[in-house]
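Could you please consider the sequence and fold following this short note?
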Amino acid sequence: ARLILAARRVERLHELSSELKHHNNQEHYILPLDVCKKDLVRQQIESLPSQWNSIDVLINNAGLALDTLPLHQGILEHWDTMIDTNIKGLLYISRLILPGMLERNSGHVINIGSIAGHECYPNGNVYSATKHAVHAISKSMRLDMLGSAVRVTEIAPGAVETEFSEVRWKDKQRAIDFYKDFQPLMAEDVADAALYCATRPLHVDIEQMIIMPTVQASANHLSRRGR
């Protein structure tokens, strides 16, 4: 596979680039990209070199949660950031990539949602709303692509140990403590699920996959050791 590595933090892209070169010398292209900036997204996607602009698989993974406050105490700027990233960013990218897929009658969009897009939990309000939007957009996209060979998948993970909780709370120790008494999913588990979906035969579209830690039964039900 040839990979376009797109993200806002350029230094992380270069770290990943070095890792890829070290492990398998996989061909890849670094694309600094803030999905919230509509004009920049268009400029960056439309200026991709010709050998990189026919995208076969788009993984919409940009997303975040900020705080766990009840709605009446919510921070408006946090709401804006979550909506801009989780919903509008996904839409901006998809809008620019889908026409090429339809023209080639080939492609696969994989949207990374969340169990919070299928259920709600206390103080998850706006984050949950954005992931419910990802669920609805994924289903709508699937309907809009019907009749073409373009596939659409939503992967909705439960608890995954990434930077997610540290970003949410701006507190590294709190994030460490959240994960310490149960076995969460790891980023590799979600990546493996995406790879599985992307490598099915072309007549197979895994429309939706909910993937949870074995110890998690809903957005708000975790079996923690000693509790």
